[in-house]
Amino acid sequence: MITGQTINSIGIVSNANVINLKTNQETFSLDNGSFDIFVSLGDSLQISSIQHITRIITISKKDIANESLKIKLKPNTYVLDEFELKKNHLMGRLTLDVNAVPTNKKDSILRNVMDFSK
């Protein structure tokens, strides 16, 4: 069993997924960034978090002797596609607005595919 802590340049990283790739055992870091997981010499741990770059580390003799790890994650930036926000002149009442919502081809296709009313 090894104890670890996930951090970044600002502080603690909570809810990071930690997976032993050899045994497929997994856990996650707690609110204080700490986690516990069973490892053997040479096992690989994959540490991932949605806002950080995934890291894979290999367990060494030094890690096992110390019985602890401190894993620093680097932030990851996601760039989203541009979108256009249009005024629709909706009233805020569902019964009236449902007929006034403009449709486009993609929405119509999705609506037809996702119609489970029958």
Please provide a written account of the structure.
It is built from three helices and seven strands. It has helices spanning 61-66, 94-100, 105-113; strands spanning 2-7, 17-20, 26-28, 34-37, 44-49, 52-58, 68-72. It has a four-stranded antiparallel sheet, with no helix packed on it. Strands 4-1-7 form a three-stranded mixed sheet. Helices cover 19% and strands 30% of the residues. The longest helix has 9 residues, at 105-113. The chain is α+β, with helices and mostly antiparallel strands and 118 residues long. The chain is elongated. It has a domain at 2-72: Sandwich (Immunoglobulin-like), CATH 2.60.40.
Q: Can you describe this structure in just a few lines?
A:
This protein has 118 residues and is of the alpha+beta class. Helix content is 19%, strand content 30%. A hairpin with a 2-residue loop joins strand 5 and strand 6.
